[in-house]
Design brief:
The chain has a domain of about 160 residues: TIM Barrel (Alpha-Beta Barrel). The longest helix is centred in the C-terminal third of the chain and has 16 residues. Helix 4 packs across helix 5 and helix 10 crosses helix 11. The chain is built from 11 helices and 8 strands. The two termini are about 20 Å apart. By secondary structure, the protein is α/β, with parallel strands linked by helices. Strands 1-2-3-4-5-6-7-8 form an 8-stranded parallel β-barrel, surrounded by 5 helices.
Length: about 290
């Protein structure tokens, strides 16, 4: 198994995809979908109670993917754990062979299925990255030495199409100082804006993996357009609406076109197929990957 870190550091075009843990103990369908992508992707993100919906622990699914021959990317949020639990989970996941981490703030509980849950947010994502960097250096957040340091490859999130973009540029610089080695972005639909973002962040040392969310309906496209940092151009919106029942096919085509347009500018792409994982090989083929 080729490690995701090797791909990024060697300058190859990286392909990562997203994996949503099951809401329950049945991992069969999740691993079956993942198995079809062995050898086609360089890393697979496992979400951490995405959209504040309770699911199986990310680290557990990561361990299963590792056994399957896929290099997992452990997503960890600040929402559900204090600094003790965060560090404990990081050490435990590292002991299972997991080496890639995406540090995130996490969605507020009131958007999920346990609205009465109390958010923790003991740390912000930048602070969490600094903690992870400390574990790599051989000490915990309190400065106590570890019996065995970690070797996490640290990632963070970015929004290239945010308007204005200047706060995002400052955020990328701050996250790099905190320890981020790669960035996976919010969904992008305007390659030219992404290319400009890459030009401005490359001198900082940023490795940008453009986020590709596959559109499957006009309703989904309209919903995406309400999310901060995502802007689907009017021409693409019209293309999706005109497709009617075949909007999924158009969404796959848009994804492939976007990847091809960014192939020589970004460090890679992060594909979020949103329940359409079976179309990922087709997207990769049509993008020439």
């Amino acid at each position: 198994m080729k490690r995701f870190r090797e791909v990024i550091e060697s300058g190859q075009f990286a392909v990562t995809v997203e994996c949503e843990p099951p809401k329950g103990t049945d991992l069969g369908p999740t691993l079956e979908r993942a198995g079809r992508l062995v050898g086609r992707v360089h890393g697979m993100n496992v979400t951490d109670n995405q959209t504040a919906v309770m699911r199986m622990a990310s680290w557990a699914v990561c361990a299963k993917l590792f056994d399957l021959g896929i290099d997992p990317i452990f997503q960890i949020t600040c929402r559900d754990r204090n600094r003790l639990a965060l560090q404990s989970d990081l050490l435990g996941a590292h002991a299972m062979g997991i080496r890639n981490i995406l540090a995130l703030r996490g969605d507020n509980p009131d958007v999920g299925d346990h609205k009465e849950a109390k958010p923790v947010f003991d740390l912000e994502s930048n602070q969490l990255m600094e903690v992870i960097r400390g574990l790599n250096e051989g000490h915990d957040m309190a400065g106590k030495p570890l019996k065995g340091a970690t070797s996490w490859f640290i990632g963070a999130a970015a929004m290239p199409e945010a308007d204005p973009v200047e706060p995002q540029l400052a955020s990328v610089e701050k996250k790099i100082k905190a320890g981020a080695k790669f960035f996976q972005t919010q969904a992008v639909y305007s390659p030219d804006r992404v290319k400009e973002f890459v030009k401005k962040t490359s001198p900082m040392g940023a490795k940008i993996l453009a986020g590709i969310v596959v559109i499957k309906s006009a309703k989904m496209a309209e919903r995406l357009n309400t999310i901060p940092g995502i802007k689907i151009p009017p021409a693409l919106m019209e293309e999706v609406k005109a497709a009617g029942d075949k909007a999924i096919d158009v969404g796959v085509d848009i994804a492939a076109r976007t990847i091809k347009a960014l192939r020589h500018d970004c460090a890679g792409v992060h594909i979020m197929a949103v329940g359409m994982e079976e179309r990922i090989p087709e997207i990769l083929d049509r993008a020439g990957l």
